[in-house]
Amino acid sequence: MSREKGNIAEEKAVEYLKDLDFKILERNFYIKGGEIDIIAIKDEVVHFVEVKSGENFDPVFNITPKKISRVIKTAQLYLKKNSLNRAFCIDALIIKNSKIDFIENITL
User: Fold this and answer.
1) Number of C-alpha atoms within 13 angstroms, CB side, residue 31?
2) Exposed site from 12, 34, 42, 68, fewest CB < 10 Å?
3) Measured between alpha carbons, how far is 94 from 105 in angstroms, rounded to an integer?
4) What is the pLDDT of residues 6-15, one digit of tens each?
5) Model confidence pTM above 0.85
6) What is the CATH number of domain 3-103?
7) Of residues 31, 54, 43, the one with CA closest to residue 89
8) 4 against 102, higher pLDDT
9) Residue 27: beta bridge partners?
């Protein structure tokens, strides 16, 4: 997928989360070896959101155990870097053919 399509999907994801009363803390947080698309907070829980989109395939299959592991490590570093001692979870926001599925608290 092109970066442009990825940016469009992330914009849709941000608007979707805002409509659900999430506060967006950061987008595209990068460290060596990891990246998180959206970091948001709701009800005192920090949500690290992986956004996947596609049209002719199911993008959920792009969320692999290796990807989840990297997101967890990146999330832990984000919390430490920002001195945040709060509950957190890893979520996936899947956009396929303009349909949005929000999967909260995914694990390995």
Assistant:
1) 14
2) 42
3) 14
4) 778 899 999 9
5) yes
6) 3.40.1350.10
7) 43
8) 102
9) 38
In single-letter form, the type of residue at position 10 comes to: E
DSSP character for 82?
T
Instruction: Give burial (CB, 10 Å; 0-12/13-18/19+) of 54.
Output: middle
List CB contacts of 3: < 8 A, sequence separation 6 or more: none
Bridge partner residues of 99 (DSSP):
96
Q: Quick one: pLDDT band at residue 55, thresholds 50, 70, 90?
A: confident
Domain ranges of the chain: 3-103
In this predicted model, what pLDDT tens digit does every residue of 60-106 receive, in sequence order?
888 999 999 999 999 999 999 999 999 999 999 999 888 999 999 99
Q: Which token pair is 67?
A: 């990807």
